[in-house]
Amino acid sequence: MTKRLDALVVGAGVAGLYQLHQLRELGLNVEACDAASDVGGTWYWNRYPGAKFDSEGFIYQYLFDEKLYKDWTWSERFPSQPEIERWLHYVTDRLDLRKDITFDTAVTKATYNESTCRWTVETSKGDVIDTRFFVSCTGMLSAPLEDRFPGQSSFKGPIFHTARYPKEGMDYTGKRVGVIGTGATGIQVIQTIASQVDQLKVFVRTPQYVLPMTNPKLGPKEANAYKARFDAVAGNAPHTFCGFDYDFSHVWADLSPEERTAALEDAYQHGSLKLWLGVFAEMFFDEDVNAEVSSFVRAKMEARLKDRKLIDVLVPQEGDYGFGTHRVPLESNYLEAYLRDNVEAVGVRNNPITEIVPEGVKLADGTVHEVDVIVMAVGFDAGSGALSRIDITGRDGMKLGEEWSKEIRTTLGMQKYGFPNLFMTGAPLAPSAALCNMTTCLQQQTEWITECIAELVKNGHDAIEPTLDGEDTWVRHHDEVANATLLSKTDSWYNGGNIEGKPKRLLSYAGGVGTYRQKCEEVVQEGYSLFRMSKLEESALA
Ligand code: NA7
């Protein structure tokens, strides 16, 4: 039997939970579904050892409800996955969301019907849903690159992607473990399991700049102190460059060399992402500034590693790529893990992994590194991946996956030309994980979508879709901002460079969270410029 809804929210993570709440408050007949067996999204799937925030807990929370915020207490500055998952359960229960969420249900197909301005959505359970609004909260980093190497299925031990880590955990005692990948995820895994395993081989391709995390436990005094700052945080974070509590604090040209070093040192000691996103904005635009900041971070890393061979494999060298031009991970004694006798860094930049064989990991020169378990921290098809993996057909038979395999375009990152009444969060060309505290961005995007749907309903319209001109305008602006930065020059998941053949474009909007919010508001004030709202009879004729 076909279920009829006003809105279907796909995903029950940070965005989906709040989106469901808002659309329900609006009075819509709305439900959510999720492929997972419970709420959490990213924090449901990424349960690998050491998974945790790189954002401070107090800033990652929802800011729309002061009591909801203050009734939850974090136990440490950068909480770990189990605590984060518990927080999302707390939110779900407080907002009584569970009754409207169907779990273990993936959307497999969605087709727009021009004669009704509605979507027909099919799920892995065989359900068919007829909905006016199809709201994707599927996450920016939720399509794992699971099949990365030939021969994976031949491996004789457990092999898994970090985002599909076994729920029951793994006992590493006496095991020889291989970890492939040293992005933010691999680093958390490596520093956590190094002392648990018999032997750890880390396969390192591109060296990675890292910053140390300072992660004190929070007692009642510290918790009360951060909660007392609620108004300041809620007022400030949505308007900063990256949605954190801090913003760029210094102007490079105004400082002497000594003052610059002092500012960098001060931010380094903060033990957060501040050195990256809260000191010098010039670092993102000016190659000379970037080179100096890169050399500051490099010196810190080299001093900890000491060993030249390790430095060559693990530390980006001059001319490699600039600090902060892709995701900077925080770490806790990650570099020191390589100083242990049971840990080996295997450089695979010039001797790549060619295949997985039953005994382990085989490199181009024929060497086989024998291991019992392989952890693949190899990343995601970011931004466009989750929706491209669903068979989505819009107007005139347009397929979203096909469109994005040619060029990744959206309007404000929240809609796509040719796909009326499809709304997206955490999608390409909006600020997202790359350069934004995720909860700050997702709150704003879901609120914008709710306001847009309310406006549409109020005016008796049936459909909204970007105009082609509108989409061109946004893509042009996005590219102008992106190309003025050094971000587009480094390949990583930020620009699709981690996947062969993926069209390149910076996936996250680089103009800043505050600016993006302002632009979204301007579009509303201008009567949804960039978009076209239509009534059923008009849209059927169009
Ligand atoms: P990332 O940041 O995309 O990192 C993936 C890592 O895996 C990175 O070190 C890659 O090296 C490595 N990788 C990928 N493919 C290969 C092959 N074929 N051989 C060797 N090494 C490989 O993913 P994460 O999960 O760490 O982080 C994603 C985001 O999730 C993170 O930024 C947070 O925002 C949350 P490469 O750099 O491509 O040489």
Structure description:
The protein has 542 residues and is of the alpha/beta class. 33% of the residues lie in helices and 17% in strands. It has 19 helices and 20 strands. It has helices at 14-25, 42-45, 57-60, 66-70, 81-94, 184-193, 220-228, 230-236, 257-269, 274-277, 287-305, 308-314, 334-337, 385-388, 400-406, 438-458, 468-483, 513-525, 536-541; strands at residues 2-10, 30-33, 101-102, 107-113, 118-123, 128-136, 159-161, 176-180, 199-204, 211-212, 330-331, 343-347, 353-357, 360-363, 368-370, 373-376, 391-393, 422-424, 463-466, 531-534. The strands form five sheets. Strands 1, 2, 3, 4, 5, 6, 17 and 18 form an eight-stranded mixed beta sheet that branches. Strands 7-16-8-9-12 form a five-stranded parallel beta sheet. The longest helix is centred in the C-terminal third of the chain and has 21 residues, at 438-458. The two termini are 31 Å apart. The relative contact order is 0.14. Bound molecules: ligand NA7. Residues 141, 148, 180-186, 203, 205-206, 327, 348, 353, 377-380, 433, 493, 498 line the site of ligand NA7.
